[in-house]
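Why predict the complex rather than its parts? Because the way molecules touch one another can change local conformation, and only a joint prediction can capture that. The input here totals 488 residues.
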Amino acid sequence: MTKPAIILVKPQLGENIGACARAMLNFGLTELRLVAPRDGWPNPAAEAMAAGATEVLSDAKVFDSVEAGIADLHLVFATTARSREMSKPVASPREAAVALRTDSDKGKKCGVIFGAERSGLDNDAVVLAHSIIHVPVNPSFGSLNLAQAVILIAYEWFVSARGARSSLDQEDKEPVATTDDMMGLFGHLEEELHQAGFFYPPEKTELMTRNIRNIFQRMPLTLQDVRTLRGIIKALSKGRPPRK
Amino acid sequence: MTKPAIILVKPQLGENIGACARAMLNFGLTELRLVAPRDGWPNPAAEAMAAGATEVLSDAKVFDSVEAGIADLHLVFATTARSREMSKPVASPREAAVALRTDSDKGKKCGVIFGAERSGLDNDAVVLAHSIIHVPVNPSFGSLNLAQAVILIAYEWFVSARGARSSLDQEDKEPVATTDDMMGLFGHLEEELHQAGFFYPPEKTELMTRNIRNIFQRMPLTLQDVRTLRGIIKALSKGRPPRK
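Output of the joint prediction:
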């Protein structure tokens, strides 16, 4: 059994990172990843707030980008406060916990991404996730403290150990694609589409790219699926005249 | 319908009181009671951490004793970290939330008592409660921050209102692809793949076709997704020399 990693994207205050580490360890999570922490790393302010969860902080890994921070993960949730205009499955913390538990029990590597204190996650980060976790809150006072958001997910993870299992608990014998595998697929597809003049007008490239990625991110693809899709892209593109 | 009061017994740091107020309001709780706060009341440090939940702080009532603080309540839970040698019912946060919800819906006044940061509740306070809430935690790192304990109870209270929601409960504004749409997509893709010589050796065509269809069937595609995918196929295939 593996355990989900907690990925904090551009966290601002060291105090909040420390509070997150404490919240994680309260519920048995130990793998903390930091993407571009504002004040660098390590951060003494984090230790003061960790209240003894120092092993979580000292084992924390730092990454330059969200992509790098989740490169090895098979199942990734992004927590968002606002609703997004993205066609991704939306789960409650409880539902997400069951999915994380189910996949972790099979040895898959999972993670949950949290955005910065004020701004949350930007759309480019949300796109990288397979699903969204939406925490139901008081609609007129919805801003959760970062460590509070983390503890709710960690708590649901912890109590899911005993609870119901997902009905989508099919036997996945085949290895699931990692974020790295997906990035390889997207890079391949987008390069060929670029060569084919698909992205037109050019200013729509970003939006079009995001929509296409969302189609494929929505489903859990196996490594074999990714190979098949790349075979399709290669075959369809074969012999196309080079771009003018 | 009433809502449970949160009673903090001898809270030490104003910052923690403020964080509790924020956590409460995140999940719609507004009635804060303080029993003998160490640093007096009001406390400016609380306001700084309340992040806008100032109404909860300004409405907070201060009491000299736990007895006075819960005098008007019909149902009282005490949160404890350690197990107590007391013959009282012990509930999980989720079970307690259901009980609180049931009684609140009947107009009964309910409350949950939390002890001081370091020491928790003393036995005299626990005795006054009807039941105990025991938060399941990592046995080797069980010390919850005060506001973290409050938010877990407030969260369970909040989500107990709706019961379980389906993860598929998202608003699907976009029309979902019909079988016809999918068949159109498959027909288009398979014809282009045939033209590209993808199906090789020929006797494997059926198996390969089935595998490809399964990739796309696994996810619920919208009509727009199907259009996007067909646009991709068309773009990639453009200008490929005809099959020999």
